[in-house]
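User: Write out your own:

AI:
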Amino acid sequence: VESSGRDHLKLSVIGAKQINWGVAVGDDLDRLDEYGWNELLKKKYIVFARINPYQKFRIIEECQKRGEIVAVTGQGVSDTQALACANIGIAMGITGSDIAKQAADIILTDDNFASIVKGIEEGRLLFDNLRLSIAYTLAHLWPEIFPVVLQFTLGLPLGLSALQILSIDLASELPPSISLAYQSPENDIMRIPPRHRNDRLVSRPLLIYSYAFTGTIITVGCIISFLFVYR
């Protein structure tokens, strides 16, 4: 949180201390060493009062050095450097200057901070739904590939022809996988901690779950059914 002006400074310090937030005034930031920054940034919530553009850039830099993802909102020319250096720069679409919009990654068309929260929720929902859709699709690949492997290695007859496999993909796999991408969000989606910055859409746990766990169960069930009918 940033505030400026003498009256705003007093109110910011008093209010922050009442709710046990950290407080840092611009002049104090210039005197902080590495230990001082570590102690300051240990606090979950911090109010930065009367800071200049360079000090704002320093805050971003120190947070990023400690592995934090930094989002910055701004609207004026003085905010350009901070918007460009932050991981996520957010400019105001109505009151923001053109140069601030060019430096930003996201533009709030309604200048409403509540839209940021809504955007985070939509991003989390999209990420989760795509993962569900990918996991569902990958889980059905192994049961289709494994019979072909058995035919080449053990000489077993194919349970399904190529046309039948294609029909199954189009009729029973494609519609559910598409519907998973349009699921409604969970009630606690905004209470879940942010995912790690190195977390990928297609991760190792997802592949293990799709192939080794779910895919194996489906494969075993299909092979047992095929052998029972074939016999």
Notes: The first strand starts at residue 2 and ends at 3.
